[in-house]
């Protein structure tokens, strides 16, 4: 029988101690997020759209996390950063990077802000792209892939190279003024229709002239340096591009002293090509009657001046793909149409 002390019986007490091989970090063990850290003001975005605002690692010793996978320091316009420390922080996936190749990314991690190669991928720099806040740079060349390096093709300008800044060239022009009497000699200008510029003034004393033959050939063509459009959308977000002369109008203007109420005679060119065209644009009218001027005929000596003008409008259009809205299957993605315009109507007095 157990010995008694002070009137009580004493018995042995069994104490069980359970040892654990799991280390504790921040009061937690590995399966319960020992090295888990959440970020309320930051996140990374995986390809495919999944977001993550926490980092993790393995608790190997009490309050010691190893193999950490934190949410790395922020890089502007970078969706997915990767690092093991602040010094090797880099971007693996920029905003708007549909594919890591030319004409498929709105931001590039392969260049710095000066357009130099960035093999450490410390930046996401805006590239020439389909986005309206960037520039399409078409027709033009993004020399270093970045938007700030856009060089528009000569004859084009504006944010997206969408504005035509170059005049058309007049290659041939002749105006022949005739009277109702077929025996009268016609009045022709210029002297050399193949070299119509500069334009001389032609004088005549024939006051019975009542119609004209007008013939002009113009051309608007530039050396396009841009990457060719990609019909399928695989090699460029621009899928179609056309430019050139859109239309032309032949005009005859009669000036008589201070009288400014004499109506103008206008004839729209009837082009023989699909427009716009970078090829020769022919504008011909074989019998322009001066009916609008009947009340002012015959002409008056020393007072009347007739001016022959060709008014050309250059323009065009392009189609492109919004890769943000349609990141896959570019062959079937909708095309967006944008107009290529001239800065103004460019009349040529002949």
Draw up the topology in text.
Blueprint: E1 4-5, E2 8-9, E3 37-38, E4 44-45, E5 51-52, E6 54-61, E7 64-69, E8 78-82, E9 90-94, E10 107-108, E11 125-126, E12 140-142, E13 150-152, E14 156-157, E15 163-164, E16 169-179, E17 187-189, E18 209-219, E19 238-256, E20 265-268, E21 281-289, E22 304-320, E23 336-342, E24 346-349
Parallel strand pairs: 15-23
Antiparallel strand pairs: 1-2, 3-6, 4-5, 6-7, 8-9, 10-11, 12-13, 14-15, 16-17, 16-18, 18-21, 19-20, 19-22, 22-23, 22-24
Domain EGF-like: 133-162
Protein name: EGF-like domain-containing protein
Disulfide bonds: 152-161
Quick overview:
The chain has 350 residues and is mostly beta strands.
Biggest sheet layout = 7 strands, mixed
Number of separate helices: 0
- How much beta, percentage-wise? 35-45%
**Could you estimate the helical fraction of the residues in percent?**
under 10%
Brief descriptors of the model:
350 residues, mainly beta, seven-stranded mixed β-sheet, four-stranded antiparallel β-sheet, 24 strands, 0% helix, 38% strand, rod-shaped, disordered C terminus, EGF-like domain-containing protein, disulfide bond
Molecular structure report:
There is one protein chain. The protein has about 350 residues and is mainly beta. Helix content is about 0%, strand content about 40%. It has no helices and 24 strands. The chain has strands spanning about 5, 10, 35-40, 45, 50, 55-60, 65-70, 80, 90-95, 105-110, 125, 140, 150, 155, 165, 170-180, 185-190, 210-220, 240-255, 265-270, 280-290, 305-320, 335-340, 345-350. A hairpin with a 7-residue loop joins strand 12 and strand 13. The radius of gyration is 39 Å and the shape is rod-shaped. The model is unreliable at about 345-350 (pLDDT under 50). It comes from Mytilus edulis.
